[in-house]
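User: Okay, second chain of the day. Same drill as before: sequence in, structure tokens out.
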Amino acid sequence: ATREKAFDKILAAGNRAAKITNSVLGIARNRGTDVEPTDLAKLIEDSLVLLEREMNKYRIRVDKRFQEIPQAMVNGNQIQQVLLNLLINARQAMPNGGPLVIKLSHNAEEGMIELVVRDYGSGIPAEKLPKIFEPFFSTKAGPDASGKGGTGLGLSITKDIVRLMGGTISVESTVGKGSVFTVSIKLEKAQREQVESAVNIPADQVFSQDLKVLVVDDSKTNRVMAVKMLAKLGFNADSADNGQEAVEMVSDGSYDLVFMDLQMPKMDGLDATGKILELVKDNKPKIIALTANAFEEDRRMCLDAGMNDYLSKPLTLQKLREIIIAHIDPERIMPSQADGVPMSGNEHDNSSEQAVVSQSGETEAEKVRHAVDLEKVRQNVGGDNDLLLEIFETFATEAIETFTNINSSLENNDSSNAGRYAHGLKGIAWGVGADRLRELCLEAEQAGKGGDIEAVRTKVPEIEQEMNAVLSEINAYISGE
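Assistant: Same drill. Structure tokens below.
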């Protein structure tokens, strides 16, 4: 028994090391000095992985409240420094544990992205607040329980970094209640114009149907989600489940816009894009990549293949709206005022809405982890319960089938296929707000790609347990419990 426990600890440590390595690799991609499109939510997730052990040690519960925002034109390394400084300070302010809230939002009208880190710790005395960002000023009298003290440089450096980015940082604090640090960063002008153009269009505006759109994705759940969301925007989109089929459909030059997944059987999205651009001489379609990766190298790979832009999964109505406006002539897609009608959808079905209220109504003390972030996925689909139910039902069928394929691949000792199916399950998990399931599938996918079939086997029971929790919550939502 002792040997088994030791082995379990070694496995757990190995898995955590792999997770940290992946996060470090993600962070390393931002170590340059260039200002590039940066997925701030992903950057925050990578930072939290590095601090996971310390947060757990001090019983700190991280509450992430991320709004859908465009990628920010910033230096990832600089943002990383700011974020880690704020998170470490927040941890040190809460020696007895408690909730730590991280908010990410954007104000499109003012062209600003806002990052908020709120702790419920000791707070900062009012007389010290004016000096909090001065060099060598520290509120810490000495080392904390972990033996770490303060040099007084962290917040000073943080302020300088934010200022160089053209942003601002502020703090509000009450002794005994905690502190709130708010970082505001300007969107680049091009981003601001794109977001503002979407904001200026009424939220219930349906576009003209005079646009031929194709969705290409090997996941039925993702196809249903994209096609139905496009229908809410006014477009009757067609769909294909692999790149080869997409090439055949688009080769006649009749499509205006193609949303293309990257990893698919028969022919992947990059090869399909090359074939389409080779075959269609005139009236080439705008091709938008659909990818679960948001790194700069992935964006460049898509653009180098001839794609016009890319969307990171999960899809949302806001993302689709903005990308269409950015690449299609507004005069073509905007109907006359008389033709404009509100979006359809049962947005006030109280029987299904109750499951969401039960989450959002919890206090900090009562809050528990849910396998599905219902509020987030409802927001993604514009509050359309009918669409949400259809997505959930499709996911349930596809998830069970994909998990079966993972097990079949393991029985055949096929790590590559096991990783490929884990990738598929990861993609649809993200679409339904099952973040923990997505993380587990990502770990299995990476192990499969690396040929480590035993690591995949180790991860499968966790995936099964989490998937069952997801399906249980989805079933409760569908049945209105």
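The chain has a mean pLDDT of 78.

User: Thanks, on to the next one.
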